[in-house]
């Protein structure tokens, strides 16, 4: 046997061992070890009215899709429209709040809205207010909302923007934590 044949056999054996090693060490398919999370129900093109503990309307929700997580008892919503009725007392407006995605807590007392959030007050008890942000947390029973991110609040003649919003939905009073900018915008007469 020639030295070329010996080297060829050694290289062939090395290639076969390397191939076998790579084949055995490739990433195995992951097999779920626990229960697969599934929705216990899904609603399609629906309208839902949530009541607070006193039996009064907390909010109405319209959306093309809602899925409820059975373990967490939370709801994930696609393109939600939340209708928040006016609260008790004078000076309280109804609000319409839209977003790309929504989440509702198990008790229905917290709404997390993410992506293209836009809230508009009805303007029944004062100037209509429009609020835009990437994220907004709404507490309908407490009649308040907050956002850690950048928010713009538009009212007739005024655009106010800042970071870290705290909003009282009943009185439409709001405050920002930082980066506050105000711009006067003349209204058409």
From TrEMBL:
> What are the entry keywords?
Cell inner membrane, Cell membrane, Membrane, Transmembrane, Transmembrane helix
**Gene3D superfamilies associated with the record:** Lipopolysaccharide (LPS) transport protein A like domain (2.60.450.10)
The record's annotation in InterPro entries points to:
LipoPS_assembly_LptC-rel, LPS_export_LptC, LptC
Asked whether the UniProt record includes Transit peptide among its keywords, one would answer: no
Give a GO molecular function annotation for the protein.
glycolipid transfer activity
Q: Which GO terms describe its cellular component?
A: outer membrane-bounded periplasmic space; plasma membrane
Which Pfam families does UniProt cross-reference here?
LptC
NCBIfam families reported in the protein's UniProt record? LptC_YrbK
UniProt protein name: LPS export ABC transporter periplasmic protein LptC
- Source species, please? Agrilutibacter terrestris
């Amino acid at each position: 046997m020639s030295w070329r044949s010996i080297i060829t056999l050694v290289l062939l054996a090395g290639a076969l061992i390397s191939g076998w090693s790579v084949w055995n060490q490739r990433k195995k398919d992951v097999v779920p070890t626990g229960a697969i999370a599934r929705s216990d129900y899904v609603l399609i093109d629906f309208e839902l009215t949530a009541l607070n503990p006193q039996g009064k309307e907390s909010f109405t929700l319209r959306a093309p899709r809602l899925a409820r997580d059975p373990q967490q008892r939370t709801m994930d919503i696609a393109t939600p429209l939340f209708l928040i009725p006016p609260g008790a007392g004078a000076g309280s407006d109804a609000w319409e709040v839209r977003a790309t995605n929504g989440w509702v807590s198990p008790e229905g007392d917290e709404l997390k809205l993410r992506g293209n959030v836009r809230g508009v007050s009805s303007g029944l008890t004062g100037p209509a207010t429009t609020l835009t942000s990437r994220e907004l947390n709404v507490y309908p029973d407490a009649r308040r909302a907050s956002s850690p991110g950048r928010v713009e609040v538009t009212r007739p003649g005024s655009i106010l923007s800042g970071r870290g919003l705290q909003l009282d939905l009943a009185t439409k009073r709001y405050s920002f934590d930082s980066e506050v900018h105000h711009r006067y915008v003349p209204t058409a007469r």
